[in-house]
Each structure stands twice: as structure tokens, then as C-alpha cells.
């Protein structure tokens, strides 16, 4: 097995491109809601439009995530990454120029379309350029996304106060445009096409024996072989429990995040009587809990195969947090329960790592990324609306919180399956023969 190459050697542009892309995927979403009051001072924002903007991200992520593998096979992963970042930048600039609620909705949808493409592309980019450094690069990637989740709300309002909400929204397009530059330079210089493959892959992958077993004694490392794009790969995933399991892990993570960003301030305000300002701080606490997870999870999975342990810790803490909010919450203990609930953020970097290490090739990683994220976002799009309906119907938060707890419990067997140390190709071959 060859040794891992230094991270920056011949790959500095790829590192920069991945990190800037990752930052753009979250900052574009997190920068809008803090300045909605500023926007409403300029033109009317109907509640229905605000609701649609809140529901649009997972829907757009799912739809455009499904389209991305088709574009990747036709144009190549680097070119589609450039397209996605330019679409994000254009949408952000146009959103800052919107003059009515409809324009704000349409330009936001354009932004989310680009993000939906970028979400699918980054894990396979990591796999292609850093097969020997997957853990480190996914740590950097998920950390960049975590930072871009809670930094925009801190910056957006001061910028809007000083320069107007249009400047506050548009400035994030700079990061998306900057993220496209490294990939453009790589294409122009020919570096994208000259990446050496196959490259040694250090993380253990379960190789299936002829009998279909995955005994730890049989674990071996294998090369990443870039095979011709197969239009049937995506549809094969529909028949694989491993692919569905990773999709449920990702969907559970997205559900907890989108429900929390939509409703957690209202939940803590209604159940504990804290002020709106404190509720906002509690939401920031929920988001910040994902930062240590982003730093630790990729390494723990790649080096120590801790998938199931991390999954159970995330679900267990989430259940304790929800239970605390249900039965023992007050203005003091609510901080503990929200912090514990925030540890469900472990599931996000966990799912991203699994996308990279549960596929042998870049092409199958693109297909798996598309399947997992599109399915997960469809799943997640249902629950913010469902929680609101249940709250209106029951005039309380008990039933919605029980539903969230139920989602976490139902996800447990899927997390166990996702922890199997084998690739989607291994599972297909064990069930159906040659991949």
C-alpha cells in the first residue's frame, strides 16, 4: 500500500476549491432569515412566501441533486462544480436586487438549485482528489460548512444596518465566485484531467468473501478505479439496503436541522417562557454543537471505523434532548436539553463520510451522493410543515416533539446497517453478481 501524499502537494487548488465551495453551500442559506425584517420594510412579504422560501431548500436540493449525475457524466465533475458555483453567485446577486416577494422567492430558488448541485459534488470531489486523505479533507469540508452556518447570522444584520439588506445578501456571492476560480484554473492548466488514478485508498473497506461475509479479518485496502460512467448505477442503488440506510441517516440529520431552524425558537419560547433573544441564542447553540462533530467525526470513522458508535451517540443524545424539552424544561435546563439535542449534528458529517467510503469509484460516489442527498432532502422537506400542522392541530408542542423522537427511534436500525464495513459494489456483488 502506498503512503499518503502531502495534502498540498499538487492539490492546493483542489483544497481551496473544496473549502470555498463548502462555505458557499451553507452561507447562502443562513444569510437570508436574519434580514427578513429589513426586507419587509421595503416591500410586503406574505407569510405564504416566507413559508415557501423556508421549504424550498430541501425541495430544490432533492430535485437538482437528482439531475446532477446526468450533468456530471456529460460535462465532468469539475465543470459541473463551476456551473453550480456560478449559479449560486448569480442567484445571490439577483436576490439582492429583488423588488418584490415573487422575485425574492424565484432568486432564492435559483440559489438553492446551485446548492443542490454542489451538495452532491463535493463528497465525490474529495474522493477523486484526496483518496489518501479522505478523513482530513472531510473534516475540513464539514468544518467549513459548520462555520458558514452560524457566521452569516452574526454578520448579516450588522451589514444590513450599515449598507442595506441588498448588500448583506449579495456579498455572499463573492465566496461562490471565488470558489469557482480554482476549478477554472485547474481545467485551464490541465490539472483536473491529469490527476493520478488509481490511487491508494487507506481506509478499510470490507471486501466480501465468496460466501458474502464481511469478517473483520478479511478487511483489506483497495484502489480507487475510475470506471466509465454507468447510467444504471443510480437505479441499482434502489435495490441496496446499504444505500437506503445511508439515505435515512442523512435524512434524519436534515430533518432535525430544518425542523429546528424553523421551529426551535418557538418551541423554547412557548415551553419555557424565554425571550425571543434568548431563543435565538439557543438556536445558535444548536447549530454550534455541530462544529466539534465536524472536526472529529471524519477521523473517527475513517481511522477507527466508529460509524455505529457515533450514530448511537447522536441518536441517544437527541432522544435525551427531546425528552428533556418535553418533561423537564425550564429557562435554565433548556440550555442543557438544546445542547444535547444539537449533538444530532453528528449525523451530518457521518453521512458525508459514508458517501465517500461506501463507494469504490468517483462515478459511483456521485451516484450514491445524489441518491442519499436527494432521498434525504425529500424526507426532510415533509417534517417542518408536518410539525407546524401538528402544532396548530394540538395547540402545543408535545405531539410534534414525540414525532421527532419517533423519527430518531425509527432511524436506529438503518444506522446499524449503514455501519456495515462494505461498499455498495460489495453489497451488489454479494446479492446479484458482477457490479
Automatic annotation (TrEMBL):
It is a multi-pass membrane protein. The keyword Nucleus does not apply. It comes from Microbacterium tenebrionis. InterPro entries: MFS, MFS_Cyanate_Porter, MFS_dom, MFS_trans_sf. GO terms for molecular function: transmembrane transporter activity. It comes from the Bacteria. Pfam families: MFS_1. One of its GO terms (cellular component) is plasma membrane. The lineage of its organism: Bacteria, Bacillati, Actinomycetota, Actinomycetes, Micrococcales. This is MFS transporter. The chain crosses the membrane at residues 48-68, 80-98, 104-126, 138-157, 169-188, 242-264, 276-297, 309-328, 334-355, 367-391, 397-418. Keywords: Membrane, Transmembrane, Transmembrane helix.
Amino acid at each position: 500500500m502506498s503512503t499518503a501524499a502531502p495534502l498540498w502537494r499538487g492539490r492546493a487548488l483542489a483544497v481551496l476549491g473544496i473549502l470555498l465551495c463548502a462555505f458557499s453551500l451553507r452561507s447562502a442559506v443562513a444569510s437570508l432569515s436574519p434580514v427578513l425584517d429589513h426586507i419587509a420594510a421595503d416591500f410586503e412579504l406574505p407569510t405564504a412566501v416566507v413559508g415557501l422560501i423556508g421549504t424550498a431548500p430541501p425541495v430544490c436540493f432533492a430535485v437538482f441533486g437528482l439531475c446532477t449525475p446526468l450533468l456530471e457524466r456529460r460535462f465532468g465533475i469539475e465543470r459541473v462544480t463551476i456551473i453550480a458555483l456560478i449559479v449560486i453567485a448569480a442567484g445571490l446577486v439577483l436576490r439582492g436586487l429583488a423588488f418584490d416577494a415573487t422575485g425574492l422567492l424565484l432568486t432564492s430558488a435559483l440559489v438553492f438549485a446551485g446548492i443542490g448541485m454542489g451538495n452532491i459534488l463535493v463528497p465525490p470531489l474529495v474522493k477523486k482528489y484526496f483518496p489518501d486523505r479522505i478523513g482530513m479533507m472531510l473534516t475540513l469540508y464539514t468544518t467549513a460548512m459548520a462555520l458558514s452556518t452560524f457566521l452569516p447570522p452574526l454578520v448579516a444584520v450588522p451589514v444590513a444596518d450599515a449598507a442595506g439588506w441588498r448588500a448583506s445578501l449579495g456579498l455572499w456571492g463573492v465566496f461562490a465566485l471565488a470558489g469557482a476560480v480554482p476549478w477554472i484554473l485547474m481545467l485551464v492548466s490541465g490539472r483536473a484531467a491529469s490527476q493520478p488514478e488509481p490511487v491508494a485508498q487507506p481506509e478499510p473497506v470490507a471486501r466480501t468473501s465468496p460466501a458474502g461475509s464481511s469478517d473483520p479479518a478479511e478487511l483489506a485496502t483497495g484502489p480507487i478505479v475510475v470506471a466509465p460512467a454507468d447510467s444504471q448505477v443510480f437505479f441499482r442503488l434502489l435495490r441496496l439496503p446499504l444505500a437506503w440506510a445511508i439515505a435515512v441517516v442523512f435524512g434524519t440529520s436534515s430533518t432535525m436541522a430544518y425542523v429546528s431552524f424553523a421551529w426551535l425558537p418557538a418551541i423554547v419560547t412557548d415551553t419555557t417562557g424565554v425571550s425571543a433573544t434568548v431563543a435565538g441564542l439557543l438556536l445558535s447553540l444548536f447549530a454550534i454543537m455541530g462544529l466539534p462533530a465536524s472536526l472529529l467525526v471524519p477521523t473517527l470513522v475513517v481511522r477507527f471505523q466508529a460509524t455505529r458508535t457515533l450514530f448511537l451517540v447522536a441518536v441517544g443524545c437527541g432522544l435525551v434532548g427531546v425528552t428533556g424539552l418535553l418533561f423537564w424544561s425550564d429557562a435554565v435546563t433548556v440550555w442543557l436539553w438544546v445542547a444535547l439535542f444539537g449533538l444530532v449534528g453528528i449525523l451530518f458529517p457521518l453521512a458525508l463520510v459514508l458517501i465517500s467510503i461506501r463507494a469504490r469509484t468517483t462515478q459511483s460516489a456521485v451516484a450514491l451522493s445524489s441518491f442519499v442527498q436527494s432521498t434525504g432532502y425529500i424526507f426532510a422537506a415533509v417534517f417542518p410543515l408536518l410539525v407546524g400542522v401538528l402544532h396548530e392541530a394540538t395547540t402545543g408542542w408535545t405531539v410534534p416533539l414525540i414525532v421527532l423522537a419517533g423519527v430518531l427511534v425509527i432511524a436506529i436500525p438503518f444506522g446499524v446497517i449503514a455501519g456495515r464495513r462494505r461498499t455498495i459494489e460489495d453489497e451488489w456483488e454479494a446479492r446479484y453478481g458482477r457490479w
